[in-house]
Design brief:
By secondary structure, the protein is an alpha/beta fold. The chain is built from 6 helices and 5 strands.
Amino acid sequence: MSEIIPIASDHAGVELKERLKRELVALGYAPLDMGTNSTDSVDYPDFAHPLAEKVEHGEVQRGVLLCGTGLGMSYAANRHHGVRAAVAWSPEVAQLSREHNDANVLVLPARCISEDESVEILKRWLSTPFAGGRHSRRVAKIEEGEGT
């Protein structure tokens, strides 16, 4: 069975979301579209929170969010216990977010990068494992600080 990858965007990322859904399918994943499906203005937390809840509750291992800068989606998603949402603007940043921080939500800045760059970032993020080791201790310290 293919890994389910929920994907959501606000109005700024809706077109890029459609491209990334096709890429996920081509890579053997099962994208779960959690909206929005229009370029009409919407509020990004309305889409970030439901996706982050799926990660928080262990329904999925990871997910993808998109908005104009990536910042709003990351702020909302990172409010959830166990969610480590990383804004990535290059394949290298995506790789490091996985290797060092075990990022489980990729956030893409749809207005700041091209479709082709987004695809490369997504591929690198999906294919990079968490390095563990000293990074495990650091990730644990992130979780210790939640809710304080």
